[in-house]
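Re: folding output
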Amino acid sequence: MATAVIARRRSKKKILVAGFLVFLAALLSTGAAVYERPGMFVTAIQRLRVWRMGLQIRSVMLGPYRINYMVAGEGKPVVLVHGLAGRAEDWLPMVRALTSHGFKVYAPDLLGFGRSSRPDVEYSISQQEEIVRQFMDSQQLQQADVAGWSMGGWITLKFAADHPDRVRRLILLSSAGLKFDPVNVAALRPKTEADLAHMMSILTPHPPVIPSFYAQWFLRDFAAEDWVVERSLRSMLTGKDIMDDKMGTVKMPVMIAWGRQDVLTPPSIGEQMRQAMPQSVFFMFDDTGHLAPNECSARLGPHIVEFLNAEPPMPAGIREEPCR
């Protein structure tokens, strides 16, 4: 009897040890895979966040082009337009604030970016504006609140100026679109780990330290879209879509938000926009740069909801506060 009990205990111990060894092997294997293919795990984490937020990933054909987009929530429509070399997932920190306050969020990947088509075209601001118009048509959105970040702000500002009846309220976040000396534009096309570190120092006053194996994945990702970024920048630098003196038709309520330490698109651009659209309210966040919509999402999100819900519209003026 005692011998049988001892035997069973030894058998259980062997099973537990074997199970632990299998777990350890799987853990080591996963660690090696993270090291060798970090992009797969970054993507998996993003997809988990998308799923937990109730976002659905869909696509729609706009003429010959397939445009990927994310949609979530129920209520008043809000269209979110990302920046250069960005994608719909850039808006994840803002999505929960909007969907939890009665908004239906649409976040498309612009032409050439994310999972949308990459045709051999110019990638001008005008072309991306037309993509936004066609996307809204495809979703039967005659009018929506529209937000744009960086290059996306330029696109949405032009859309609001050209189609003011389609935009209920406009949000511009660290937006491009006015004439200025883009001294740091080359930083947006990193080729080496040093370039990547420099780009992050341009985007934020608190640049993260990126491990080398992650940096290599980021660089491969940037390399895949570099020709699209190059064409987009080339078109922007011609000045043909510059919005200086073209904001007279933008009469809807406007919210402008900026990071005080933004050295890519300086806050002076936001101030010029505020003066050109005197009905606008300007939020300035201290201790952040071009990534304010991510770094200051806990503060910015509620202000966006407040702006979109305000009746009558939020009064014009300047509001300054810390990022954190």
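--- second protein (sequence, then structure) ---
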Amino acid sequence: MSQRKITVAISLGMIACLFALKSGVRAQQTEKPSKVSPLGNYHKWIKVNSKPVQFAAARATQCTTASPSQLPSPHLDKFITVYVNPTGKEAMLHQSQPKFPVGTVIVKEKYTTATSKTPELMTVMRKHEKGYNADNGDWEYLTLAGGSQKVEAQGKIEKCQSCHQQESGRDFVFRSPYLNAEQQKRLK
């Protein structure tokens, strides 16, 4: 599938999600989990880390849960793989003080082990037009059930926003846990 067709498919998914939000679905969390995936075939996007990275316990404890089943943290003792769509590649990999463009989508897969084949949970950040969420860099957050891409929560999720505030100087995106040493050195 061509890059243009992928972009169109992702855009249509984003429009469907936005329509659902404007049609009475709460901004904090969807009332009924959505079957609409904003991700398309994200495995063809830029893979930020070449192998799963174990999330540091100190940072994981700062995060609160997306659901009661994820206690004490959705990140604790998990292995993470991150993807960014082509729109956000430059900011993610090459800018020391990134400004992610509108349309950037970042997917974080969370695995129980480094060799797991299916994520148990996915979290997504999607960059919107200026004014969508000004206090949080105009990012929308989504949590999705593992490999199904079923949206469980979507919008201005306070639990996500409160953690990502720590990275306000880097457009609210954590990168250092996922970038290799050479990439991190270039960004300093």
